[in-house]
Amino acid sequence: MDQTVIAPAPVVEHERAHFPEGLTLDCGMTLAPVEIAYRTYGTLSEARDNAILICHALTGDQYVAETHPVTGRRGWWERMVGPGRPIDTDRFFVICSNVLGGCMGSTGPRSPRGASDAEPWGTEFPPITIRDMVRAQHALVRSLGIEHLFAVVGGSMGGMQVLEWATTYPEMVKAAMPIATSAFHSAQNIAFNEVSRQAIFADPDWHGGRYWEAGVIPARGLAVARMMAHITYLSEDALTRKFGRRVRKSDGTPNQPCSGGSLSMFGEIFEVESYLRHQGSSFVRRFDANSYLTITRAMDWMDIAAESDGDLADAFAGTRTRFCVVSFSSDWLFPTSQSRTLVRALMRAGANVSSVEIETDKGHDAFLLDEPDFDRTVRGFLSGVAEHADLPARVRGGAG
Amino acid sequence: MRLDQRLIAGMITPGTRVLDVGSGDGSLIDHLYRTRGCDAQGIEIDMGEVTRAVAHGLPVVHGDADHDLAHYPDNSFDYVVLQRTLQAVERPREVLRQMLRIGEHAIVSFPNFGHWELRLKLLLNGRMPNTAVWNTPWYATPNIHPCTIRDFLALCREDGYRVHEWMAVDEEGERAPWRRSIRLANLFGEQALFLLGKGRSASRGARLKRS
């Protein structure tokens, strides 16, 4: 990719919760202070029983259902969350926070090391786990005066957080909806993450992770990482349907390798290349490379069974949470087979579990896209649990 | 809801835990939850049906009788229901064993292959019988393990299950009048419905007589 000038992202003041006492992490270190950036939608009921926590994926953030203040784009799950939507903000109080280690306002590698030290953490940010992210969310939820979550919902890495919630704070979670996810990160997924990381390390602008000192960002490496990852979010059918073998014809050159013209041999010839390059270059504007490294590593550590001596069912033993496990037929990053492993462990644990595989050609990203059966599943599952819990269809009163 | 589903629901004590194996659109578990206060869950092989049921707020997991019952813990349900499916599973004996491992009771219904019409058609035509209940040709039928009421009773005896209740049911699910005689039920019942329990039955005659 050509070195292009990266327009700086606008400076935005995010809504944050402060935890001066910090958090003790799985690695044993105490990270303090900790700040968690978050957004809420809807009204908390008087009984404080209608809160749904949404957990975002690797490159998502807290701006679920509103125009993003940095990118100016729609909220990443605006079609799912809002008044009258499947996650209905007329009924539920929705919370979403930027993960620990992220770069949209929560404490992460770009944050200063401490009050007296303005130097960013960079690569010395402590290694965090998905459970550490969940601990930070737990602190946030409690600081909002909420003792029980009606539901925790999330896709991909967000689904990993859902599972950590259900095993770490089972008594707090009435319903759990892990979507397009797994209870462990597979060797293939670790391998993809490793390629992403090596792409960043290979960028001359990486500067050993202290790129801020040189006033640059490893934009090319991060863009390559994003491009590669983006392929894994789609499916062969989806790529074929969207791009096929179509070539870019903006300058009218014919569809031949030796036609001369203005396109060089390694320029953007095929539309799929152009699409990926756009994905890469728009990503680096909003995402910090060290955050990408920290969070991908947290995903790699994910293995809930290992936290219970190797038996996934033990991790959920005695759970009273109602689960709805959703997968997508063309998702090869978190395939249905991994969801089935999870579902069978939940069955062995005697959990109340529903499972649905949505038929689609859109791949892993399907959970973010228009899938009517998926919408119906989310709406139906939440309504079913709400009926069990006698939750009214609209918020009554407010917790103030 | 079919009439025989009402008969099944009538066998289930309110407020109990129920697993419906092959729950279809979830109408039985919905009925049990709403009218009998049961904690009812379903397991269904057809993903379209699973999606419809979950979209209606019912807890249904995608899976099948042959492969997925083994994952449930012992005694995790009061009742495990298998409607009109036993004849279509790969290993009916194992499915029954699993049902009575994970449930205190099993409720099983199946089409009766001993019905007089089937016997007569096979006798007269020498061809696989084709009736309203058995209406797919031999090469296309999913019903790979048909049995008669007496065959089923013999298996229950062999595997030591208690028959708490039994009845013959017609195709619409209406209860048939053959209550006293197994042989008459086996001749005239289109469907059979059994409530089974764990443990060896003491005396066949005493157990089978309906109260």
From TrEMBL, chain A:
Q: Tell me which residues bind substrate.
A: R226, D365
Give start and end of each AB hydrolase-1 domain: 50-369
Keyword annotations for this protein?
Acyltransferase, Amino-acid biosynthesis, Cytoplasm, Methionine biosynthesis, Transferase
Example of a GO MF term? homoserine O-acetyltransferase activity
Subcellular location(s): the record lists:
Cytoplasm
* Pathway annotation from the record: Amino-acid biosynthesis; L-methionine biosynthesis via de novo pathway; O-acetyl-L-homoserine from L-homoserine: step 1/1
Q: What is its EC number?
A: 2.3.1.31
Catalytic reactions of this protein: L-homoserine + acetyl-CoA = O-acetyl-L-homoserine + CoA
Give the positions the UniProt entry annotates as the active site: S156 (nucleophile), D331, H364
Similarity remark? Belongs to the AB hydrolase superfamily. MetX family.
Describe the task this protein carries out: Transfers an acetyl group from acetyl-CoA to L-homoserine, forming acetyl-L-homoserine.
User: What is the protein name for this chain?
Assistant: Homoserine O-acetyltransferase
To which species is this protein native?
A: Acetobacter estunensis
Which gene is annotated as encoding this protein in its UniProt record?
A: metXA
From TrEMBL, chain B:
Family annotation (Pfam families): MetW
InterPro entries registered for this protein in UniProt: Methionine_synth_MetW, SAM-dependent_MTases_sf
Highest taxon, organism lineage: Bacteria
Protein name according to UniProt? Methionine biosynthesis protein MetW
Q: Which organism is it from?
A: Acetobacter estunensis
